[in-house]
Amino acid sequence: MEERIATKAGELFLRYGIRSVSMDEIASHLGISKKTIYQFYSDKDSLVQRVVVAILSENVRECLNTREASKNPVHEMFIALDMIQDILKVTNPVVMYDLQKYHPVTYRKLTDHQHKFWLKLITDNLEEGKRLQLYRQDIDVDIIARFRLTTIFMIFNPEFTEGMGWNSLTKTMEELTIHFLYGITSAKGQKLIQKYQHR
């Protein structure tokens, strides 16, 4: 039951935003009483934290699988793009704002994960790309890795996405990724972009 509650809450938070989903609504979707939820979670904040931790754990698994399945660093970027787009299809951009404003402790867990796990993942990709001469030898890996991490999450910034439809976020992420790759790849790497772009 504890897992069922977290799973359903996660689905609703991602679709509608965290603030707009009440504990009553979660209970209603599960066909249980709100009292049952409180047997497992002391408040909404603890439920949000459980949901985010579960999502991050799943993300680690998916990212490591992506690396394992990729043929080279450029291919890894395209597989990661597919994964991000799948997430964006079911995620309301307001989720990040809600998390930052109303659940700061959990938001901090997310930012810690960004700078410990995702930043290292991107850094490793860039270093391997340079080693294989798929990326330009003159790029500063630390700066470019931080830039890439920022652009991934920039898509959740209300100022950046103002006027865009929710459904356009996947296209936006693809444009940002292709632009990023053309900026860092060598001629050899650019041939792979063209190959994988028509996957």
Structure description:
The protein has 199 residues and is mainly α. Helices cover 78% and strands 0% of the residues. The termini are far apart. The mean pLDDT is 94.
Layout of strands and helices, then pairs:
Layout: H1 2-16, H2 23-30, H3 34-40, H4 44-69, H5 73-89, H6 94-102, H7 104-131, H8 141-154, H9 158-161, H10 169-184, H11 187-197
- Radius of gyration, rounded? 19 Å
Helix content: over 70%
Element order: H for helix, E for strand: HHHHHHHHHHH
> Tally of extended strands?
0
Tags for this entry?
mainly alpha; 11 helices; 199 residues
In short:
By secondary structure, the protein is mostly helical. It contains eleven helices and no strands. It is elongated and about 60 Å long.
